[in-house]
Automatic annotation (TrEMBL):
Keywords: Transferase. Pfam families: Acetyltransf_3. It comes from Streptomyces filamentosus NRRL 15998. Residues 10-167 form the N-acetyltransferase domain. The lineage of its organism: Bacteria, Bacillati, Actinomycetota, Actinomycetes, Kitasatosporales. GO terms for molecular function: protein N-terminal-serine acetyltransferase activity; protein-N-terminal-alanine acetyltransferase activity. Coiled coil: none annotated. One of its GO terms (cellular component) is cytoplasm. Transmembrane segments: none annotated. This is Acetyltransferase. InterPro entries: Acyl_CoA_acyltransferase (IPR016181), GNAT_dom (IPR000182), NTF2-like_dom_sf (IPR032710), Ribosomal_N-acetyltransferase (IPR051908).
Amino acid sequence: MFVLPLREGAQLRPLEPAHAQEFLEHIDRARPNVDPWIPWATFSTDLESATATLQRYADRQARDTGRLYGIWLDGTLVGGVMFTRFETASGNCEIGCWSEEAGSGQGLVNQACRALIDWAFTERGMSRVEWLVSSVNTRSIAAARRLGLTREGVLRKRTPYRGERLDTEVWSILSEEWQRASTPTTTTDKAELDRLMAAFLGAFDNTVGAHPHVDAIREVFIPQGMIISNTASGPVIHTLDAFIEPREKMLTDGTLTQFSEWEVSERTEIFESIAHRTSAYRKSGVHKGEPFEGAGRKMTQFVRTPAGWKMASLTWEDE
């Protein structure tokens, strides 16, 4: 069976009809996050319907028109990714994802999506990967941004849902836009650095259906890590504790809501056991009832430790 390690304790592997009971239990846990956005989640309410959902994707895989993969964390199914449409003749495909709360904010979905996109372009020669998302599904929109996809437009009132019709945004990325490292070793390292950055940014996400996991920052940094804000009056240097506590409070007490942050571009250089990443980012949210958007730059240093790659320091400057 195909198994792709995502990190220690986490795997990506095919989600098949034999997993129906486990899949149903997972969807019941994930339903608050996925029910409004993924039709088969709405209809997978018992063992028979859950089995039917998985069988439909098994049939699509046999015809090479779709695929479904689960993300297991410490032996528990916590999310997944899928090709809802895979058209080899036209070179176009559509990718989607979902997660229950236990699988969120750790970069697992981002890493799994990257694996599927990379496979579609490099192994199957696809030309275009699409991401269709409801205009009110801010969590999925943030995921598309973190993957580097481009928003192309809105299909107005395209999708019926429980008596309403919802707008659908179209995001995509082309094969020539997809950046890959040149060597297998660098590819593995780069994927891990991507995962760390996705986990860092995802830790603050409190858009609809998401719960911030600011304390997860400790897992991506070395214990002595520093986070530095370069302000007009000079740099402000934070320990991890000093950085986490006030932000966790703002993100959970209603001061800062609907917040997400994503990279719009990045350049990563790896030198054996140290690495450096420069990023441009954007962010949006609602602060004390006032919507806002922002942008800026980050510089992040990484070190390879016995436990794997970790962030050592991160400096940011808002525009």
